Amino acid sequence: MAEENIDEIIQEILSEEKKVDEGKEEDLLPSEELYECPVCHHQVSEEAQFCPYCFAVFDENVDYKMLIETLIKKLKFLVPIANQLNVPKENVNLHIKEAKKYAAKEDYPSGYAHLHDAYFYLIKSVVERFSQELEKYEIMMGMNNEIRELYGKASGYLDEWDLENFITVFGQLKEKASELSKDLREYLEKLEEVENALAIARKFGIDTNKASNVVDTAKDIADDKKYSDAIKVLDEALTPIKDEIENAMGSFLTLVKEEVMRATYSGKGSAKKIIRLVREMKIYWDEGNLVKVLEKMDEISKEMSK
Length: 306
What we know:
By secondary structure, this protein is an all-alpha fold. The chain contains 11 helices and 2 strands, in the order αββαααααααααα.
């Protein structure tokens, strides 16, 4: 194929870019004109008789009876939530009582007006309280992609006053955040345990450099908020120095044996406690729990120094 033909084909392909972009712009155009509701400031259709968010009326020919029925359903859903969030409802109760009076007289516009005031106050108050609750989880967005996605969904639903979907997603967000918080606590506890074990190892003359490198790797993983992965690395932190721990333990147990014999001969009660601690240390050694082995060595050493 001639070079100029290739260039021509490339140019033809590139010329389609404008058409593609124009098509995208057309797809993004709304199918109907929108404008801002003067009451709640959501975007609504210019042809709407009432706002689907706050139920403010734009057309006096609207079916007020239908709106009353809708608002009653909304209030039944909102009131229990407001109770849980400790939202004051004195004025709400008054509005509902007045609405019932007007509805009984079939004065639906007046009944609607009271229910609208009650609903608008409650929905704004509940959304505000939920917004404050949601903000508490903003700091966790960088910890986990799922947290970030759930936070974005919850925020979007709250902006749209879609409380049913918000409550569902917010529950999922809190559950995931709780899991992360638990992993973080477990990681910090494990890190403290391992670093304490390394400090004990150094007291027994054990070179801990290899283990310290593993701990540093776990810290790097934790910096990326991968706490469960960091915990797994910490679980194996002392494995590279197992031989050194075994050698130190052998030398140490020789001293322990001599101390037990002396304590037994002199009638000191410490012998029984030391023997018990040695038995516990052996169990941990058989299990491969090097952290606990070092902790028991430290306990035995302290008992012998009394």
